[in-house]
Fold:
Amino acid sequence: MEMIIFTGIPASGKSSFYKELFFNSHLRISMDLLNTRNKENRLLQYGFETQSKMVIDNTNVTRESRKKYIESAKRNKYEIIGYFFESSVPDCLERNRNRKDAINEIGIKAKYKDLEKPGFEEGFDKLFNVKIVNNTFEISPYEI
Structure:
């Protein structure tokens, strides 16, 4: 089984990427949908119990925020795959303006300031970069 962990600031394309590539195959764990950590923990537990493939579709901008998912996945013998969404603040602000559920500009800038790029030393088995080029997702091997 696999757990995919997204890392990226708000409006960097994470949820759209999920819908395009993983909607039909992976359980989506998203605080945007669940609203509370209790609901998130219950859905994660369900995913592990049913041995479901899962995507963690949160910003996960710090190593600390990714740690609990990685530790849980390791305990449950899941392969851990990370996707890092490379996006500039101006690009995210522009995409945010076009969202129906737009968030505060300060929130985007704060997440960018807190951003810690993922690394293999955290426990990832595979890492990829994701960029949006001409409204298309481009995936490449992760480079530190």
Remarks:
- Strands lie at 2-7, 27-29, 54-56, 79-85, 126-133, 136-141.
- Helices lie at 14-21, 31-34, 37-49, 63-75, 89-97, 105-114.
- The chain has one domain: 2-141.
- DSSP finds six helices and six strands in the chain.
